[in-house]
Design brief:
The chain has 415 residues and is an alpha+beta fold. It has two domains: 25-265, no CATH class; 323-414. It has 15 helices and ten strands. The chain has a five-stranded mixed sheet with strand order 1-2-10-5-3. Strands 4-7-6 form a three-stranded antiparallel sheet. A two-stranded antiparallel sheet has the order 8-9. Helix 4 packs antiparallel against helix 9 (255-264), helix 13 runs antiparallel to helix 14 (370-386) and helix 14 (370-386) crosses helix 15. It is globular, with a radius of gyration of 25 Å. Pfam families: FRG (PF08867), T1RH-like_C (PF11867). It comes from Maridesulfovibrio salexigens (strain ATCC 14822 / DSM 2638 / NCIMB 8403 / VKM B-1763). This is FRG domain protein. Residues 58-164 form the FRG domain.
Length: 415
């Protein structure tokens, strides 16, 4: 697991499980900022999570935004040119005027160039860097955008994906939050906004959405349920602020199963992008699932008998050596070779790399530390994915790797 989620007691990101009360935490760090956060250990917990009473106040309308990587903030594309993640008034004006001139003669409705909001929305559709962020009324569309793409093997560790939840009712109140605007364009020539239940927020000038919201809500005279926010205890603050904005980290596992589940709900590229781009993405996904590239099967692999492993002895310490690598090798052979996709030599090489990497993260009394166990599983999952082991065969190895390493350490101590 990423070091970000391996936190000291008292500063953990709470894990929510179905049937329990939702508890948020404010970590006040570079990744989560001052936004209240919570974790789900499976994408399957997302539906019961958004179905809780916490998000079903009839007087409040929430909107959602899914993001593939846990570390991404609420940063509009134009803000990435500023160096600090903030859209300045000058940057926004220069970009708008440039696009307004460039778009003349290229629009079906020439009057659009005089409507600033509509022109920004068109620019967003065509890839223009804008101060807009995409949101949706549908939590399942947000979940789709969080999980629709696989992680690249060249990327850094990404143990969680994320969905932001924003109180639209509150930010639409110009008296309370005048600097953050919601935009629902009048025109939707491509049908995407309708199909995605989509809308936009305008980022405020010279501030982030997060900073502007927390600035408003944490003011001394701001009232929460009839009581001043300033009177809340530190334990009450995260849950109170989460009613306005929060970030949900969702364990990055079983990505393909999540996408298939959403497709059964008619949430997929073909339905969300009713144009040729969406049709192409949808067909690409289907063909990828149907033709997962695998190495050539090995004949009679299922008849392979895992050999009895005799550990060599270190001539100085007289202790067995290479024990973990051999145990990992046995686990991989039983889990992968038996299905006929990898040679014994390939598995031996992978087992050595994996066991050596895991050894580096062993600390005193590691057998009893959940954080180390989680790290072992994530390292195993990432390494198997990088070696193109299909997801359905990675999972059994990931679930057993900790037990194997513990067992071999115990065996070493007994010898």
């Amino acid at each position: 697991m990423s070091d970000y989620f391996d936190r000291k007691p008292g500063n953990e990101i709470p894990v929510w499980k179905p049937g329990t009360e939702i508890k948020f935490e404010i970590t006040a760090d570079k990744i989560s900022g001052r936004i209240p956060v919570v974790r789900l250990e499976s994408w399957e917990d997302f539906t019961p999570f958004v179905s809780t009473d916490f998000f079903n106040d009839s007087s409040v309308e929430y909107i959602f935004r899914g993001q593939r990587r846990y570390s991404w903030g609420l940063t509009p594309s134009l803000a990435r040119n500023s160096g600090n993640g903030i859209v300045t008034q000058d940057l926004k004006s220069r970009q708008f005027e440039a696009f307004k001139k460039a778009a003349r003669g290229r629009l079906l409705d020439s009057n659009i160039v005089e409507e600033e909001d509509e022109l920004w929305a068109i620019g967003q559709h065509y890839g223009l860097k804008t101060p807009l962020l995409d949101w949706t009324y549908s939590p399942y569309v947000a979940l789709f955008f969080a999980f629709s793409k696989q992680d690249s093997s060249s990327e850094t560790d990404n143990p969680y994906r994320a969905v932001y939840i924003l109180n639209k009712t509150f930010i639409e109140d110009d008296d309370d939050v005048p600097d953050i605007r919601v935009l629902e364009p009048k025109k939707d020539d491509h049908g995407r906004l309708v199909n995605q239940a989509g809308l936009f927020t305008f980022s405020p000038d010279d501030a982030t959405i997060e900073n502007k919201l927390t600035e408003v809500i944490t003011a001394e005279d701001f009232m929460v349920n009839g009581h001043p926010y300033s009177g809340l205890s530190p334990d009450e603050e995260p849950d109170a602020l989460a009613k306005y904005i929060c970030k949900v980290y969702i364990k990055n596992e079983n990505q393909q199963a999540c996408v298939k589940h959403l497709r059964r709900m008619n949430v997929h590229h073909g339905s969300l992008f009713p144009d040729l781009i969406g049709a192409s993405e949808y067909c690409n996904l289907l063909i990828d699932e149907a033709t997962i590239i695998r190495p050539e099967p090995i004949s009679n692999a299922s008849d392979f008998v895992v050999p009895v492993i005799k550990y060599p002895v270190d001539p100085i310490t007289n202790e067995p050596v290479g024990q973990e690598a051999a145990a990992v090798r046995s686990l991989l052979i039983q889990s992968i070779l038996g299905v006929g996709y990898y040679t014994v030599e390939q598995i031996e090489d992978l087992a050595e790399k994996l066991s050596n990497t895991l050894e580096e993260y062993k600390v005193t009394d590691w057998q009893h530390k959940d954080s180390v166990h989680a790290r072992f599983k994530n390292i195993t999952r990432t390494m198997l994915r990088n070696h193109n082991v299909p997801e359905e065969y990675r999972t059994p190895v990931v679930e057993q790797i900790v037990d194997v390493m513990i067992r071999e350490d115990e065996n070493k101590e007994e010898q």
